[in-house]
Every structure is written in structure tokens, then in C-alpha cells.
Write a structure and sequence with these properties.
single chain; alpha/beta; Rossmann fold; seven-stranded parallel sheet; 9 helices; about 50% helix; binds NADP nicotinamide-adenine-dinucleotide phosphate
Length: about 250
């Protein structure tokens, strides 16, 4: 039987790595990419992943790696590589904002463009992006993170319409807090945090069911979704409360 294949960006740690292990255990051929070559070399040895040193914000690097991996087919691509603010700053940090747009937004576009080169030819495939529950509201101190994740959600929604007749599915994942190296650096409280193993299983199940949108964990997501439908005046009043402001000085 033909082996299914998945390519995951940002597979060297956190959710990406856990997804890579899960898909491998399910019998998939797994390709991962990230920037840290030494980490990728070790993972290639330990798990037999096909590894590629790629910065997702560099279009040519992404196109070349995914084209190489796709020579033997490509069933699923997961645009997971991402970055957040380490500290929320009181005033907008424009340098970090540009970096987040390059990685979290252009990185997803580069990944989808590269995957579609193959998927449109074969008339099948599944595009997956890891957004965030932070996409649903403009949160204090992390404007560009919320903005890039919201943009990714809209791109997925549009692509699911555009690619319907090409037999290509699209899934956008909106996780709450997950225990990964990214959140281990975060100093503010993170309610309802779940393990990376649990998060990877939720992503896997949502993709398997070909859902357009996957939200988890349930209770936290419900609360944030309620905030997103409040009149903005009320939302701003709530979020102006001191308890939600974790900004530090520049
Ligand atoms: N953790 C959470 O609570 C949470 C919640 C919602 C959404 N998310 C999203 O989930 C995704 C994974 O996050 P995580 O928590 O697993 O973070 P993580 O442990 O910091 O992993 C991030 C991964 O992305 C890679 N990466 C970062 N910048 C890259 C670039 N320019 N090019 C290629 N690879 C790059 C990193 O590898 P290298 O450093 O080796 O490049 C690493 O493998 C992100 O999109 C994040 O926004 C996370």
C-alpha cells in the first residue's frame, strides 16, 4: 500500500515535533523543517524523519525543501512554525511585529504555495495551518501575534473555497495555551494550559475529520469566543482591567 506523507514546518520542537512523532507512529513518511541544523540532525537519527534546514520566511528555501520532499508525494502539509512575543511591551515593538509577520504569516503563505505546486498537479492534498485562539481578539501587548494568526485564519477560510474543486482540503487550528518551549519562556499566567501530547492528538483528529476549524481546549475556547462577540466597547473595558495587562517597559 502507498505510504501517506506529511511535511511539518517548525518540527524541531514543541507542537511540530509532537505532531511529527504522532504521524510517524501512524505510519506516515514525515518531513520536518526548522532553522537549527544540529537539532534536526539528531531528530533525523532518532526518528528517521526527513529533515530540511529552512527559514520559513525565505520563500526560495521553503519551495526547494517541499519540492524535494514531494518528489515521493505529499498528502498533508502543516504550517506550524511560529513565534510569539517573549515579553508584552507597553508600547508597540515594531521590529518584533515585522518578524512575526515574516514568520507567522509569510511563512504560512510560502508553505502553502510550495505544497500547492504538488497538490494541484496531483489533484489531492490537505493544507493545515496552526493559528491561535489569540486570533479572535486584539489582545493587549501582542498586536502582531493576534493579527498574524487572524490573517492565517482568513487565508484558510478563503483557500477552502478556492480549492474545493481541486479536491484539496484546508484546516485551521486555533489552540489555547500548550506547554511547549514557546510558553515556557512566557512570564504571564496561562489558564487551561494543556500538554503538547494532548494538543497534537486534537490536531491529528481534526485533520483526519477534514474540519475547516479546530478549537481547543473546549472551556477556555468558549470563554475567548464569547469575548470575541461582545460589543467592542464592552470588550475594551474588560481588557483594560489591570489584571489583563502584563506589559513590561521596553
Ligand atoms: N504553545 C502555545 O501555547 C501555542 C498556542 C497557540 C498557538 N501556538 C502556535 O503553535 C505553533 C508551534 O508553537 P510551539 O508552541 O510548538 O513553539 P516552539 O516550541 O517555540 O516551536 C516553534 C518551532 O518553529 C520553528 N521556527 C521558528 N521560527 C522559524 C523560522 N523562521 N523558520 C523555520 N522554523 C521556525 C522552531 O524551530 P527553529 O528554532 O529550529 O527554527 C520550532 O521548531 C506556532 O505557530 C505557535 O504560534 C502555540
Amino acid at each position: 500500500m502507498l505510504q501517506l506523507s506529511v511535511f511539518i514546518t517548525g518540527g524541531s520542537s514543541g507542537l511540530g515535533l509532537e505532531l511529527a512523532k504522532l504521524y510517524k507512529a501512524k505510519g506516515y513518511r514525515v518531513g520536518i523543517c526548522a532553522r537549527r541544523e544540529d537539532v534536526l540532525q539528531k531528530l533525523a537519527q532518532d526518528y528517521s524523519f526527513e529533515t530540511f534546514v529552512v527559514d520559513v520566511s525565505k520563500r526560495a528555501e521553503v519551495l526547494s525543501a517541499i519540492a524535494k520532499f514531494s518528489e515521493k508525494g505529499l498528502d498533508i502539509v502543516i504550517a506550524n512554525a511560529g513565534k510569539s512575543y517573549e515579553n508584552k511591551t507597553r508600547l508597540p515593538n515594531f521590529q518584533t511585529a515585522r518578524e512575526l509577520i515574516d514568520i507567522n504569516l509569510l511563512g504560512v503563505l510560502n508553505t502553502f504555495e510550495a505544497a500547492l505546486e504538488r497538490m494541484l498537479q496531483q489533484k489531492s492534498g490537505h493544507l493545515v495551518a496552526i493559528s491561535s485562539i489569540a486570533a479572535l481578539n486584539g489582545l493587549p501587548g501582542v498586536s502582531a501575534y493576534s493579527a498574524t494568526k487572524a490573517a492565517v485564519g482568513k487565508i484558510c477560510e478563503s483557500f477552502s473555497l478556492d480549492l474545493k474543486n481541486e479536491n484539496i482540503n484546508v484546516t485551521c487550528v486555533y489552540p489555547g495555551f500548550i506547554d511547549t518551549p514557546l510558553t515556557q519562556k512566557t512570564p504571564h499566567p496561562m489558564p487551561s494550559m494543556i500538554s503538547v501530547e494532548e494538543a497534537a492528538k486534537k490536531v491529528y483528529e481534526g485533520v483526519k475529520k477534514k474540519k475547516l476549524r479546530v478549537f481547543f481546549p473546549f472551556k477556555f475556547t468558549l470563554m475567548v469566543r464569547l469575548l470575541s462577540v461582545l460589543p467592542r466597547r464592552v470588550y475594551l473595558k474588560i481588557m483594560s482591567m489591570k489584571r489583563f495587562n502584563y506589559s513590561v517597559e521596553d
